[in-house]
Amino acid sequence: MNATDHAPLIAIAMLASRADGRTNSAEQKAVDAVVARIGNPDVTGNLRVADLAARLSDDEARHTAYRGALGIVNADGVATKEELAFLAELRTALGLSEADVADAGRTAGALAGAPVAEVHTGTPPGAELEEQILQQAILTGALEILPDQLATIAVLPLQLRLVYQIGQRHGQKLDVNQVKDLAATLGIGAVAQSLESVAMKLVGGLAGGLLGGLGRGAARVATGAVVTFATTYALGHTAEVYYQQGRRIGTNDLRALFDKFQNDAKTIYPRVEQQIRTQASTLNIQKVLQGLRPA
To answer: Which of 68, 71, 187, 253 lies 20 to 30 Å (CA to CA) from residue 224?
Structure first.
């Protein structure tokens, strides 16, 4: 890969984020904000998969494009019929065979289909809630450091599972949709989160390769870890207050709480950054997948 791959890779990721055809105004606003944060590459106009694929420089860039798209379409659950059709079109345009992408597809499907209600997050029994939230925030932050774009698929199931567990502590009988609704109320969009994660890794990887692993590339990856750590930390603490008060908090107050806890998390991050990096050094996709399976 080289710098000329940057714009087509991000453009393909954006097309993947729209592949289900259900992008609402809030999600589109979040996606636009992501594009602005990653440097606003030229991804405007009539984007066509075949044209974008033709602009990629080598096999590494083509495989990166496919895995990034795969991570995005599975971010909010197992890929839909429309998303699978997009992936098939992309695979053909990239010149990849079904065998080339089979393993990645199985892994992505397994991560996306991880049950939220199961409890197996590595938190010791009886651990204090603060520690549980902190450890899950550290884990999701560590996922952002992994170079594999598929790692981002695991972030949302871990966040939703944390909320589900907190609800259980307070005697709440929740289903997955109720947990997702709370996340959506707080502006946590799976597709936007995944697009940002994939984009940061793409940009970080390109810049890292050009700058010897220093400078902008490292900063991009670190930024992704901070954002995800802060989001998970804030989601957990907001859920604690919400369920503790019997779900009787208005939307504006919930969002204000979430913003406060995000700011708290950003002050905590420097103290746990080394833990995040250490955890990332021992993580791989299969290990993450094992942790998402029922005990």
So the answer is: 253
The closest alpha carbon to 86, from 28, 17, 27, 154, belongs to 17
The Cα–Cα gap between 207 and 215 comes to 8
Tell me the chain's radius of gyration from C-alpha atoms: 19
Residue 179: its pLDDT value, please?
Answer: 86
Is 93:49 a contact under the CB 8 Å cutoff? yes
**Three-state SS across 70-125?**
HHHHCCCCCCCHHHHHHHHHHHHHHCCCHHHHHHHHHHHHHHHCCCCCCCCCCCCC
Structural domain range at position 36: 3-292
The total domain count for the chain is 1
Q: 27-31 long-range contacts, Cβ below 8 Å, gap at least 24?
A: 27/189, 27/191, 27/192, 30/187, 30/189, 30/191, 30/192, 31/191, 31/192, 31/195
pLDDT in tens, 177-188: 888 888 888 877
Q: How many whole angstroms separate alpha carbon 129 and alpha carbon 43?
A: 43
- Nearest C-alpha neighbor of 141 from the set 240, 230, 31: 230
Non-local CB neighbours of 243 within 8 Å, separated by 6+ positions:
166, 167, 169, 170, 172
